[in-house]
Specification:
The structure holds 2 protein chains of 2 kinds.
Chain A lengths: L2 E5 L5 E5 H4 L3 H13 L8 E3 L5 H13 L19 H4 L2 H7 L4 H13 L3 H15 L4 H8 L9 H8 L7
Parallel strand pairs in A: 1-3
Antiparallel strand pairs in A: 1-2
Helix pairs in contact in A: 3-6, 6-7
Chain B lengths: L6 E2 L2 E2 L5 H10 L2 H7 L4 H11 L5 H10 L5 H5 L3 H11 L2 H8 L4 H11 L13 E4 L5 H11 L5 E5 L5 H11 L5 E5 L38 E6 L6 H17 L5 E6 L2 H13 L7 E8 L1 H13 L5 E6 L6 H10 L6 E10 L15 E7 L14 E5 L12 H7 L5 E5 L13
Helix pairs in contact in B: 1-3, 4-6, 9-10, 11-12, 12-13, 13-14
The chains are: A mainly alpha, B alpha/beta.
Protein name (chain B): F-box domain-containing protein
InterPro entries (chain B): F-box-like_dom_sf, F-box_dom, LRR_dom_sf
Organism (chain B): Orchesella dallaii
Chain lengths: 169, 432
């Protein structure tokens, strides 16, 4: 079985099968690039992911392992409305997988899923973040996600006026 | 973006170009990236957008696509990037129009016929309230409930010809978060007013469950309004209706408000039985529209034994059915909780036995219909906020002569209404 060595930003190496790694768009491209540039077809590719630390990378690979037999979703499916397929694909395993994580880890996981182009994982994590936004006030959202308001002048006031049709009071 | 300071000999410094920094950040080690944010404002902004997922346009767009439409307006206020992205790819005036007009099934059907799959409709991703009018079959709404059922909080079925099985499936499989269910003018086929057809109940057999313990439960359900016209004389309907009601109420253990308006006498008997015997009921508001007749009356009085903490009570009383003493006893038993009371006498009645203001000390809202005689007793109710007197008959006196009574009430009264014709309206108007 052909293997590939994936190395995290803090130097931890993960040895995974190429079949599994190729379920990530980014790793797939990297492996193919390595094949082209290397003369020895038997050589084991080594990929450094400098933006992702070991803990997060392990989670991504764990998720890929669990979902290795799922059909691969084309990355630009539902491009028009931008709506993913989390509702359809989310299994009990996914829910248990995400349940113990705090929001910071989920955020890093989203970035990693985006960077490694793992559509399924990106969908379920986005859905999770959505559930943290729904029903909260603006300030609660800002605090939860550590975002700052950067409206200039009366932009915020203007948006509030536009929202009047649905916001009570 | 770039101001004068960044220009050196007519050229922009390459390390201040957004694209350059973005590419750099891709390749930088995760620890270095955060150090780089300290270099300058532009680096900080661009790197923050790169490293915070909710400032990354693609990821943010993904997250927002799951957001119910009603949550988008507050999300716009979070920061300018969110606002821009929502306005660019998630905002649509069509959707907004649906909300501001309060979505109706007519629109839905028209669009459904045209497009086919409701997921492709220019509709919000979540509805909170939905009205189904008579001409709509379940097939036309099946896809709708599959997609939007879980977001529904309020469902009104007006003259629907759904079978009970349809209703069951819809409620328990899709609309699981429902808080308010209103059934108006009959759910059981052939029992609508004016249909006059022979009733057959073959499709109702499924209702008769053997094991009551296995009912699906709608924990969110807070309010049930039932307004059905059943035919009293059709005895074969009785078993089914009672079973239906049992099943419905067993499935909604948390229900707090019941508007009960079913014409057949046995359903009223059933309802009062249910209220009187169900230990776990958390009922707070009760409205029984059809006149209370003899057997029920005794049961309603049972509420007194149960000490149900009702805050709202709306009843109609027919002279022959209930003695004034019994009514008085009922009201007094509710004195510690009752805030909103509506009594409709079906014949003109005096109120000699009306409890005193000391007894009903929590009463804030009072409606009296078809009342006869002096209003002097009202003088004591100085805490009333809202008073309605309907179809009053004064014994040879003019209302003007009773002005002293209202003078005493006025300091606290927020709303005072006089009506001279029969008009007890539903508080929820499903057409508006």
């Amino acid at each position: 079985m052909a293997l590939v060595r994936v190395i995290s930003s803090d130097g931890a190496a993960f040895l995974v099968s190429q079949r599994l790694a190729k379920r990530s768009g980014k790793l797939k491209t990297e492996i193919e690039t390595f094949r082209k540039s290397s003369d020895n077809s038997e050589a084991q590719p080594e990929i450094r992911i400098v933006t992702i630390r070991a803990e997060i990378l392990r989670l991504v690979l764990q998720w890929l392992q669990q979902h290795q037999n799922d059909p691969v979703l084309p990355a630009n499916q539902n491009e028009q409305d931008g709506r993913g397929d989390a509702e359809m694909g989310q299994s009990q395993w996914d829910r248990d997988f995400l349940a113990p994580m705090d929001l910071g880890i989920v955020m890093e996981l989203i970035l990693a899923a985006n960077h490694l182009e793992v559509k399924g994982l990106l969908d379920i994590t986005c859905k999770l973040v959505e559930s943290k936004i729904t029903g909260r006030t603006v300030d609660e959202i800002r605090t939860a996600f550590k975002l700052k308001s950067d409206f200039k002048g009366n932009e915020e006031e203007q948006t509030r006026l536009e929202n009047r049709w649905c916001v009570e009071n | 973006m770039m101001d004068r300071q960044h220009l050196e000999g007519g050229r922009i410094h390459p390390l201040l170009l957004p694209n350059v920094i973005t590419v750099l950040a891709e390749h930088l080690h995760s620890q270095d990236v955060h150090r780089c944010r300290l270099v300058c404002k532009i680096w900080d902004r661009i790197i923050r957008r790169k490293t915070s997922p909710l400032l990354n346009a693609k990821i943010l767009s993904g997250v927002l696509s799951y957001l119910p439409y009603m949550s988008l307006p507050p999300a716009r206020l979070v920061c300018s990037l969110w606002n821009d992205i929502i306005l660019k790819s998630h905002w649509s005036e069509d959707r907004k129009a649906f909300f501001t007009r309060r979505f109706r099934i007519d629109d839905f059907r028209r669009l459904n016929a045209k497009i086919g799959n409701p997921r492709d409709l220019p509709l919000p991703l979540a509805f909170t309230s939905f009205t189904v009018l008579n001409s709509i079959s379940l097939n036309a709404t099946h896809d709708f409930f599959t997609d939007y059922g879980t977001s529904l909080k309020s469902l009104t079925l007006y003259r629907c010809k759904w079978t009970l099985e349809n209703l069951r499936n819809t409620l328990f499989n899709h609309a699981i978060n429902l808080e308010h269910l209103s059934i108006t003018c009959g759910i059981i086929p052939g029992t609508q007013i004016g249909f006059g057809k022979e009733i057959s109940f073959p499709e109702l057999d499924f209702v008769l469950h053997e094991d009551l313990a296995n009912y699906p439960v709608l924990r969110q359900m807070k309010c049930i309004e039932l307004e059905m016209n059943l035919l009293d004389k059709r005895d074969n309907a009785r078993a089914y209706v009672e079973q239906f009601l049992t099943e419905l109420f067993k499935s909604c253990p948390e229900v707090e408000e019941v508007n009960f308006d079913i014409s057949a006498w046995y359903t009223r008997t059933w309802a009062t039985d249910f209220i009187a015997t169900n230990e776990n009921l958390t009922l707070r508001k009760l409205r029984v529209i059809k006149p209370i007749i003899d057997p029920d009356c005794a049961k309603i009085i049972n509420l007194q034994m149960k000490q149900l903490p009702l805050t709202t009570l709306k009843i109609r009383i027919r002279y022959k059915d209930v003695t004034l003493e019994a009514l008085h006893e009922l009201l007094v038993s509710l004195k510690h909780t009752l805030e909103d009371l509506q009594i409709v006498f079906l014949e003109y009645r005096c109120a000699h036995e009306f409890p005193s203001a000391q007894e009903l000390y929590k009463l804030k809202k009072l409606e009296l219909w078809k009342f006869k005689g002096q209003l002097d007793f009202l003088r004591e109710f100085a805490d009333l906020r809202n008073l309605l007197i309907g179809e009053m008959k004064l014994k040879g006196q003019k209302l003007f002569n009773q002005r002293d009574v209202f003078k005493a009430l006025l300091p606290n009264l927020k709303k005072l209404t006089f009506k001279d014709f029969w008009e007890v309206r539903h508080e929820r108007d499903w057409f508006s």
